[in-house]
Prior knowledge:
It contains 14 helices and 18 strands. It is α+β, with helices and mostly antiparallel strands. The chain folds into two domains: 2-197 and 368-459, Zn peptidases (Aminopeptidase, 3-Layer(aba) Sandwich); 199-253 and 299-365, Alpha-Beta Plaits (2-Layer Sandwich), CATH 3.30.70. The model has no long low-confidence stretch (mean pLDDT 96). Zinc ion binds at residues 88, 121-122, 155, 182.
Amino acid sequence: MIEEVLHYAHVNKDKFIEDLRDFIRIKSISTDPHHIPDMEKAAHWLAETLKKSGCQNSRVYKTSGHPIVFGNFHSGQPHARTVLIYGHYDVQPVDPLNLWNSDPFEPIIINDQLFARGASDMKGQVIASIKAVEAVLSQKEEIPLNIKFIIEGEEEVGSPSLPEFLKSHRELLQCDIVLNLDAGMLSVSTPAITYGLRGLAYFELRITGPKQDLHSGQYGGIIHNPAQALCEVIAKMHDDQGKVTLPGFYENVRSASPEERERLAALKQEDAIFIQQTGVKKLWGEKGYSAIERITLRPSLEINGVNSGFSGSGAKTVIPSSATAKISMRLVPDQDPAEVRDQMEDFLKENMPDTVQWELLELAGGPASLTDPNRQEVQAMVDALAKVWGQKPIFQRSGGSIPVVAQMQTYLGVDSILTGFGLPDDNIHAPNEKLHLPTWSDGIDAIIHFLYNLVKLYAV
Length: 460
Ligand SMILES: [Zn+2]
């Protein structure tokens, strides 16, 4: 019967594309208050589309920010297990508009590529999942699997309303596994599953010295310049092996298994690739680990910005009264952002000279996440992707953070399968964003295979 489902998807492909175009035309830019009515419109459009797909109990939930759409197909079969499909309907702003070759909100197709804002990130992915479910639910024989959707409108602005929603709707969102299509393919022929993401701890350090800026002729030599004190303290945050020196920073860092290190080595991301991408003279970092390991399974500390004193043109002989730095850390399992804050405080107490005053502000934070690649549901996706592309997906760990994956673990206690059908050259967040339609159609097939693999898996 999966053949009939795939057939349904194939014969309705043009209709699916028309629905995607309608969805894209709604200008759901979450960061811009002018588009609040568009956010409402997009949410209600989705709830209607979910209902038409067979998810009868679909509705829009208000939050303190943009609404969240919930969709639900409840199987009549008792003991059916549940998959929760996550997505976001908001998109990035479109500026600079003059670099677009066409209207960002009037999708056009050129050589199998559909150009528009949100085409790849991630309205295309959202429609792919809804249409795969529509195809599955179009059959007379009911599938013994509950299918839920949660589609938020604030991913591009850091998902501020999501944690509260997850916390207060645990029962509604109860599920066995989450499918998140907000990652992408490695290339047009190679699907990928992202099984690890780093977390984040972000601080602002403020150092103050004299009560106001001073003349360096009058006071130079007797004042510990706050800019200098800041540099001295920052310089101590790494040792000569490239290790972060905050006390206890590595204590809970989960060590990588040989299997894991092999998997990363298989990606063949040599140093030369990173040098070419970044234009640096030479790479830097923690000794004993390859570049790909340092940006995925090892934590890091970066100075994101430094601000102090005179930076205008010409010379001004001043001793600044204060200096600030933005400092962030990428975290790995099992580092706890709250513990890292304490470690930073301890480090500063130990290392800050007594000539200045300081305070530490916390700006953002969230833990890392990891899904076991050997989990049966992940293997169900591996099989689905392999069926469609003729080769198994690459398993990758990302150095970045997708907070929703960790939030699903924290608040719902459930792992996510992170994959998707966008391509590296889709220009997401940039002008001329596009979606490769043949890959997108294959993605719909892959989701259908995945859902049927889950049915098989859960029937045992
Ligand atoms: Zn996205």
